[in-house]
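Known limitations

Structure tokens in this collection are predictions and should be treated as such. Users comparing against experimental data should check residue numbering before alignment. To illustrate the layout, the record for M14 family metallopeptidase is reproduced below. The input appears on top and the generated tokens appear beneath it.
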Amino acid sequence: MLALLTAGVLAVGTAPLWGAGGGDALDDAALSATPTFTVGLQSPQDPGPFPGSVTPTTPTITIAGQRDGESTFKVVKYDQVQPTAPGQMDFDHFHTGIEIQWWLKKWAYEHPDIVDLYIVGESYSGQPIYQLTITDKSTGKDTDKPAAYFEGNRHSGETSSAESSLWLAHHLITKAGKDRTVDKLLDDKTVYIRPVNNPDGHNMYLYTAQTNRSTVRPYDNDGDGKRDDDPGEDINDDGYLSQMRQYVGAGKGTHVVDARDPAGNAMLSVGAGNGDYLMFSEGIDNDGDGRYNEDGIGGLDLHRNYPYNWHPMGEDDATGRNLTQGGAGEYPLSEPETKHVYTWLMSHTNIAAVNSMDTRVPMHLRGPSTCDPDECMYKSDRKLYEHFDKAGVSFTGYRNAGSVYIDYATRNGGDPEALFGHGPDFGYFQYGAIWYGDEIWNGGDFTDYDKDGRWADWERSRWCAENGRTNCFLPWTKAQHPTLGAVEIGGINPKFWSQNPSDDLIGEWAANQAQFNLYLTQSLPQVDLTRVQVKKLKGNQADGATHEITATVKNTGRIPTALEQAKEVKIVAPDTVTVQGARRVGDAPQFYLDGGDDQKVRLRVVKSDADTVTVNAVSVRGGLDSTSVRLN
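Generated tokens:
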């Protein structure tokens, strides 16, 4: 178990950073039995001085879970996670869990008028999962306003998404009171930001050489009956798990140095018996099956664990012949990180826009994930999504935008392919919201030199060489492998070029993505009482009414108060108008408003003792608006 509580180092909540975890069943057995933190709203507290170290001060950390391979790994102090000036926010480095939690607590302490900090639950290992609520509290409760939800780092190594979440939070908090656009947004709307949904994986990635697809829960990736029994080993102790090449002589290998790469970094597969080298991923064949690192830490996918159209993993399909989904988990919402997203959303249905961000296509990615949008989406909903696709590209310049089933699956050719249990599908088909799962960063794919529509390592290396970059690829260095003998280790930087940008580029990518998320927030539905009139009724009315109130309600937002899909699944109650201070007679008005549309309603009321009444426009996702009128 990792100890972080050394002098000057921030305690991560009051819970251990890594729990013991474990158990064979994919259930809640790994969660801490008695958490030492309180789930819910956190009291603002001064976090104290900036941490003395943004990485653990112990030589190793142990990853939660009972596995058949190694769980304890050496701590790496990457230059890419060191702040330029401790205690000053910058986006020229990647923020570790230690630093992120310091900033979240600092913001909540210093800006209690607009920031609340929550622990929404605990991760697989028992770590607290933090989330910000950002809105101007003086203009109403967060749940009384239209809201957007943004989430980063669901997948362990996709740390760029955490940076974009932090960029947006920092922008809103530091611009409040100084920028009229931000002030107006926080007056009217709420932004929920969960920078790191998967703290176990995020910390493993930034504190050790290890990486994985999504969650650290042990899983048998290679089907040999053992879990996590073949992780990578950092043979040359440079902090990365990269590639190994072994020179075996001309015509005896599978690869050659790619002659198209002026820097000599890239390798080219030419087939068995045609190359000079054999290639391996860096590590040891721990299970002796002839493969390297095929069963590393974890293996489930938190973005295949949502309830809509969830399918079991292949090994759990008793028929052996149905469509299955790799990484789906034991059952929908089996993973605590996904469950905590679901429970927050279902208890905060004022949320109308979501972005649960990943890396690295790059793409503005959305549903549907199992069907053609033209066939399975309401036309008006689809058109709205297509608008946001184009808007997103205008902010980010991403090469791709559109649905998982069509645009993502066929971006490199081929036929549409279904993906099950996907967050954006739950978000649209069950939650009835605009939900993206955007993919930040391009993997270093800047120039397609041979114009074939694809990018290879030689093109990535050439671009870096032409742009004076020496941090894209790790130099090939000689090493002695315990079983292979003499090898060279190097290749593309797996953490800070292949999967995420280099530290000097992350700020630009984080900001561009955050600008699109701001646009989504500004597009939220917003009900506005544009005109309210009162007419005193003459004589005795059959229903006893004494006055008639005419009110016009306008949706000033771009997004409807309920998508057509939301109406179908009845996730959003109709909009209405109510009166306080007088008794309404007759049925309450019910309606939904498209973006920019208005609705004129009439309410018949019986005057009470009060001369002044309050008329309220009420919308689940469009918020509230009210005005006072006199019953003359």
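For this record: The two ends are 72 Å apart (CA to CA). Confidence is low (pLDDT under 50) at residues 1-32. Please report discrepancies through the issue tracker.
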